[in-house]
Design brief:
This protein is mostly helical. The protein has six helices and no strands. α1 packs parallel to α3 and α2 runs antiparallel to α3.
């Protein structure tokens, strides 16, 4: 259990207080800011664990599998709460969640065949865009903050979600063809 893997586990653990603050505070007041701070810290652990793993050659199969899973759990938890608060359209949340299940399914099939599908550049960019989208929606800054920026980031995150899914299936479609 190296440092990058511990950071991944920390990201998963931070989801619990994040969700508690968001639900209890209904996305308002000091609890909103506490939840936002927790989400930002959790998001930064994603960058940090990847940087440390690459720099010190600490890349493991556990990290290749759990790092993207931790990201998915963090972002999907936030998005479901944002739908409940009326800040994120449910159809966008559903497309993003469907993509996550599809790519996770592909990874599981690959794993059954002894392969590990690491996060691609598109997948990493998708994750960052989703995290930025969530941060802007959690902050829910009042006027004169231009909410158009949040909407633009939301649609960029949606587009990157779809593009990254297509990329995973094009590059790793052979895994599905090998199934009998």
């Amino acid at each position: 259990m190296n440092l990058p893997n511990k950071l991944t586990i920390l990201r998963i653990i931070l989801i619990i207080p994040f969700v508690i603050f968001m639900i209890l505070g209904q996305g308002e007041g000091w609890m909103k800011w506490a939840a936002l701070g927790i989400f930002i810290v959790a998001s930064l652990t994603d960058t940090l664990d990847g940087h440390i793993a690459r720099k010190y050659h600490l890349i493991t199969n556990f990290g290749k599998f759990m790092d993207p899973l931790a990201d998915k759990i963090l972002v999907m938890s936030a998005m479901v709460i944002l739908v409940e608060l009326g800040r994120l359209p449910s159809w966008i949340c559903l497309i993003i969640i469907a993509r996550e299940f599809a790519v996770s399914g592909l990874r599981l099939i690959a794993s059954d065949n002894g392969l590990v599908i690491a996060a691609s550049w598109w997948g990493k960019t998708k994750t960052v865009s989703q995290m930025v989208m969530v941060i802007l929606m959690l902050a829910d800054l009042p006027a004169p903050y231009p909410h158009i920026i949040t909407d633009i980031v939301m649609y960029i995150a949606l587009a990157l979600t779809v593009i990254s899914m297509i990329d995973y299936f094009v590059k790793n479609g052979h895994v599905l063809k090998a199934q009998k």
